[in-house]
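Progress report, Aim 2. The chain analyzed during this reporting quarter is listed below.
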Amino acid sequence: MSGQDLDVPPILATADLSGIAYKETTPINISEKMLKANRIIAGMDSGVEVDAYRKLRTRVLKKMRDKNGNVLAVTSPAPGAGKTLTAINLAISIAMEVDKTVLLIDADLRQSRINKYFNLPATTKGLSDYLTSNLPLNLLLLNPGIGRLIILPGGKPIRNSSEMLSSPKMKRLVDEVKTRYDSRYVIFDLPPVLVSDDAMGFAPHADATLLIAEDSVTNEDELKRSADLLADANLIGTVLNKSREAIEDYYYYLDPVPIGKRSKNQSRLKENQQLFAKFLSRP
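Predicted structure tokens for the chain:
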């Protein structure tokens, strides 16, 4: 993929106040229509969903600062919870701040999804190609023109993904990207915890981990098993995603007290609150 002029909507382009020119990255064409169609909305001006991601950003950044860390892993108990979309929108929300840069890395090497959301060709090279060859990292980094966001796609699917994610080369990569810029946050989109041991293998590299749960699908047993498997991953909280309630009802469980607006369906919401509060207050 060769560099070319960006087709970026003004709402996104004007938000990049960094003054930083990413000369060693490849710009990619992107449009507001495509973003909305793929539910990438954190870079938009306003809206209930946008505000929800901003609230999540605020909570996550506070917890990361408290831990003096800048590498966040995002995973879920099972497929379909929306972890990749949450990772993308959270990364964009952070990247829209004037004093922060974000590197979003697709580390789901068995079934990369970030390519799909940004309409990238299936042949786009990325992390797996870096780990299994001598390709320079700068040739794999993409600049979508959204705030101060840079993307490292997943690359070709590989079978030995767990070994690659826990390899010395992966550790060197994490050490390099987390220290290059003082203002940088690095977000890794990992495979689901209960599907493979990839997330566990990568866990020691992350400063913190965010677990994405699907409303009315993820159960307490799956949360407990995921938390047990991520015992060394510094789990900072859980996001309840895909709410079946009205759009204003977004809840983020980064501590036992959710933030967001109250649901009209109090009975089911109360049940979800109790489940997640119980999970997050476990020893």
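The beta strands are 26-27, 71-75, 101-106, 142-143, 149-152, 184-189, 208-214, 235-241, 251-253. The first strand starts at residue 26 and ends at 27. These observations will guide the mutagenesis work planned for the next reporting period.
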